[in-house]
C-alpha cells in the first residue's frame, strides 16, 4: 500500500464519521454539564499519583497487622474468664476490636487495590468505580455503636 492510498483511506474514514472522539480535552462549551458543576480545565489527574496512593493505602495493612499482633500479645495473659464479669467483658471488647481492626486492614487492602487499578486503568467508568466502592462499603459495613445513642430523643 502506498502512502497516498493510506492517506486516502484515513480521509475516507474521517468523512464517514458522524462524531469524533476527543481524548484529553473538554468540549468547547463546558457550561452544559448535567451535574451542574461544569468541567474544569484545571482538573488534572496523574496515573502515578493514583497508583502511589493505592500502594500507600494497601501498605497500611502492614502497620495495622503489627498493631493487631501487639494487641493479641497484650491479651494473651488473660486466661480463663469464667466467673469473672470484668474479665469476660474485657475479652468481649478485645474480640470486638480484633474483628474491627481486621476489617479495617481488609478495607485498606481492597480500597488500595481499587485505587491502584483506577490509576492503571483510567478507562474505568465512574459508575464502575462507584460500584466497586459500594461493594467495599457493604463488605466492611460498620456495626452500630453500642452506647451513646439518644434512644430516639
TrEMBL record:
Residues of the region (Disordered) are: 20-58
Q: What domain of life?
A: Bacteria
User: What's the protein name?
Assistant: AG1 protein
Organism of origin: Streptomyces lucensis JCM 4490
